[in-house]
Amino acid sequence: MTDPLESLLAALDLTDTGARTSEDIFTGPSQWSPNGRVFGGQVLAQSLLAAVRTLDADRVVHSMHGYFLRPGDVEHPITFSVDRIHDGRSFSTRRTQAYQHGEPILSMIASFQTENPGLDHQAEPPDGIPDPEDLPSAADVLAKIDHPIARHWAQTRPFDMRHVPSPIYTSVQSERVAHQAVWFKAIGRLPDDPNLHRAALAYASDYTILESIQRRHGISWVTPGLKMASLDHAMWWHRFARVDDWLLYTQESPSAGGGRGLAQGRIWDRAGHLVASVAQEGMIRVPSREAD
């Protein structure tokens, strides 16, 4: 079995094809999954790094907006085309399209900026959250569940994740509220490249954010008939943080309806600095039960 961290780094190590038309072309591998679909966070991170490869080192990502168009196929690599939309004095804009079998599976636009001093404030960090050392790891919880997806998540995810108040893999044991928190960090030390850490943060941001919708309605991951898919993903990077240090991901869902749910998240470091903000809308359908 491939080491999960090595698998992550291999997936984020894109190949420049050398092809130049009006766009820059890169390729990247797909990480295997038992459901046959490429993890959305992987494609987000790869698309971001493809765009980074077309920029000067002083241009740093501050926002990204992407739409998931089709499921990715884990049996095939992914081609990334980067359109250099704009380069200004302080900002650059890139559009990345991820392709498989000649069709786009993700369309993303990202903005980059030279780092400058300016006004500085942030929301107050949450309090009353248990330390990650006092919580069980997702791998330990999942290892006790006899299911192929649970085994895959337990053995191959490159991040240690710890839920507050508890995970919802097989049941929702806490009260039905539309919010939760998750501590996470990479399971080992990553290289010092800041862009790699920013991309890995995008990768991890896709794991659990829709769970705030599920928790509100008492829907675990094994609920019969459950169908979920990410529709879009937006992210704003506020301050740099290493993803191999503990980060707290607070998540809430302000609304769900029409077979869709909106989830919002904030990512904090242990010192209480707001690192990033995230928003995602997802399709969520449970035909075997009526909505609460």
TrEMBL record:
CDD domains for the chain: Thioesterase_II_repeat1, Thioesterase_II_repeat2
Keywords: Hydrolase
Keyword Ribosomal protein included in the entry's annotation: no
InterPro entries, alphabetized: Acyl-CoA_hotdog (IPR042171), Acyl_CoA_thio (IPR003703), HotDog_dom_sf (IPR029069), TesB_ACOT8-like_N (IPR049449), TesB_C (IPR025652)
SUPFAM superfamilies xref list: Thioesterase/thiol ester dehydrase-isomerase
UniProt domain Acyl-CoA thioesterase-like N-terminal HotDog: residue ranges: 29-113
The Acyl-CoA thioesterase 2 C-terminal domain, residue ranges: 165-283
Family, per entry: Belongs to the C/M/P thioester hydrolase family.
Full protein name: Acyl-CoA thioesterase II
Organism: Naasia aerilata
